[in-house]
Amino acid sequence: MGPAGALSRVRSWLPTTVDRRVRIIAWASFACQVLLIGTGGAVRLTGSGLGCPTWPRCTADSFVSTPEMGIHGVIEFGNRLLTFVLTVVVILAFLAVIRMRAVRRDLFLLTLVQGLGIPFQAALGGITVLTGLNPYIVGAHFVVSIFLVALTTVLLWRVHRGPRGSHAATPRGYARLVHAAAGVVGVTVVVGILTTGSGPHAGDAATPRNGLDPAVMDHVHSWPAYATLVLTLAIVAWTLRAGLPRRFPLLLLGVELVQIAVGITQARTGLPPILVGSHMVLSALLVGAMTAVVLSLRNEQAPDEIDAPVAVEDARV
């Protein structure tokens, strides 16, 4: 089979509607972004941030860690390796929607932005290493990761629920409450980044801190966290009173309760790394759940009404 025949076979495999393959790839995109936050946390919590002392190579002569580099080199290299796995998933996501780009432009743009985010994220990770783990660069790297978690949540929502609707599905007051909660979640995440950058888990003893008082930052971090809980309780109460969909608000509340429990426990037990790492992963799930609640504010057009194969024929690869 020549190149043209192989290309034709690949093209024929590409989905023309949102099917099971597209949904699986969307879930893989979300899972990889959350997992990357977990492995990035492991790098930080084990003091492995400079386990590979240079970038993009792990040593001056090798892209992979060597036995002499020990466990820190393995952890840091594993985190970098996951970026390549994520890159493959992102490419698959883009290819999975490219033939339906004329009728599902939203999916095309979401996968495109996700694809552009990967090299940016990798480059920022490299700058983090080259600057000796500057706490503000490390924080910016985490913000990009959280943004990509939110983006893949939107992708998941769109492949299951269809494009963004033109009509509100909830009362205006409820929507304002949800948007307020989303804003406070953002503040909570940012303050959490600053808190981590000030404390013992910013890296090993040689890693620079941001100079903020960690004891004070622990208290400051708790304020928006509790405000988020209060706003979420108000959201859940509104859904119960008004008969609004409550699946995602309840999911958000559940994640928050676990997150707060872990946060309080870690603060009272000397910040054990396993709890700090769990807290980081939970922050990603918190952002994902909050994003889903925001997306539920509008009516979506059912995917079956959008993904007509006949319409896709105009969108050539």
Summary tags:
317 residues; mainly alpha; 11 helices; 72% helix; disordered C terminus
Describe the structure.
The chain folds into two domains: 17-163, no CATH class; 166-302. It is built from eleven helices and no strands. Helix 5 (135-161) runs antiparallel to helix 6 (172-198) and helix 6 packs antiparallel against helix 9 (273-295). By secondary structure, the chain is mainly α.
| Derived structural class | mainly alpha
Low-confidence region ranges? 303-317
Q: What general form does the structure show? A: flat
* Cα Rg: 21 Å
Percent strand equals: under 5%
The description of the largest β-sheet is: none
Number of domains: 2
The DSSP helix count reads: 11
Q: Would you count the extended β strands for me?
A: 0
User: Helix coverage percent of residues?
Assistant: over 70%
Give the arrangement of secondary structure elements.
Elements: H1 3-13, H2 20-45, H3 70-98, H4 105-130, H5 135-161, H6 172-198, H7 214-242, H8 247-268, H9 273-295, H10 303-306, H11 309-312
What's the gist of this structure?
The protein is mostly helical. Helices cover 72% and strands 0% of the residues.
